[in-house]
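Hi R.,

Here's the input for the pyridoxal-5'-phosphate complex you asked about:
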Amino acid sequence: MADHDDNPFGRGGMSAGEVRRIATGADPMGTWEQVQADVITSVEALLAELGLSAADLPASLRAAADFPLRVPRSYAQRITPGDPADPLLRQVLAAPEEVQPVPGYGPDPLAEAAHTPVPGVLHKYHGRVLLVVTGACAVHCRYCFRRHFPYSEHMPTPERLSRALDWLAQQTDVSEVILSGGDPLSLSDRRLSALIEALAAMPHLKRLRIHSRLPVVIPGRMTPTLQEALTSPRWQSVLVLHANHARELSPGLGAELAPLRQAGVTLLNQAVLLRGVNDRLADQVALSEALFAAGVLPYYLHQLDRVAGAAHFAVPDQEALALHRALRGRLPGYLVPRLVREVAGDEAKTPLHEAL
Ligand SMILES: *Cc1c(COP(=O)(O)O)cnc(C)c1O
Ligand code: SF4
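And here is the predicted structure with pyridoxal-5'-phosphate in place:
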């Protein structure tokens, strides 16, 4: 994962108390940038915050040296203190298992390097193109398949971005552009608006899609400027959130998303199936129901990509299929996400039962 040099809010100048007031919503003047800037970046600090001790601190520290820890305080506050098995904690705390090599787990499990016509662009599927608009994320997820992605080679410098836009302007069979990263919503509204404006000038683009974990992780991210960009009549807009557990959804999320929903923006969620996080039926039922209560439909449940350092999160395929079958027996069809695996070279995400 890239560092946050391109993120003007990466270095906060506030006192912890000030930021905490904002993060908890007590300060109406607090901006999402301030919430995002208040992060825990060391294993020791996170453990201390939660009253925990490390199982194997040296190995965790080596894992964090390889892929830095990054946990917004607003997220850490949703973790149950004193519980080392908390499903939110497991997603963000560097674990000793990460440094053990596991056969079949490598740095680029999806062979993304083979699908980059120009730096910063991933074109794998018909009609849609993914733009890597930043390497920065508000939170670092330990299972992230892009944890070894060479963001420095794809960093959207003005020249690279303008080359990517030039390329996209020529692709008249592409009707959907997906802003991705990193997390595209970690960019400032000013930069996002400028980017979306440049895309709006390409008549072949009909749909604007954003894949982001920010609205889940950072309360207040859906600013009026961002809402305006997404609800513009120029676009059919889709916002795909990324939440893996019901407890990640803050109580205010539904209200924050309501203006988008009312303006006709399609709101979806993708999750990753993770051992010890959401691998029980009750977790999946609760996630789907909490999403729907916030106006969001489950879209994909991804079988873990085999990225080095994440093997301890893997759920065996047969178990995943059984879980999915049980979920279908419990929920209406529209609350059951598609269980998929990304198979390098396939022309779409592959339903897990076809990927075996
Ligand atoms: C997942 C992905 C998409 C989107 O796939 P959908 O099935 O349309 O959600 C597009 N491009 C790339 C490179 C992807 O990895
Ligand atoms: S927010 Fe997304 S891209 Fe960033 S670390 Fe988490 S999973 Fe990876």
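One thing worth noting: Confidence is low (pLDDT under 50) at residues 1-14, 19-29.

Cheers,
M.
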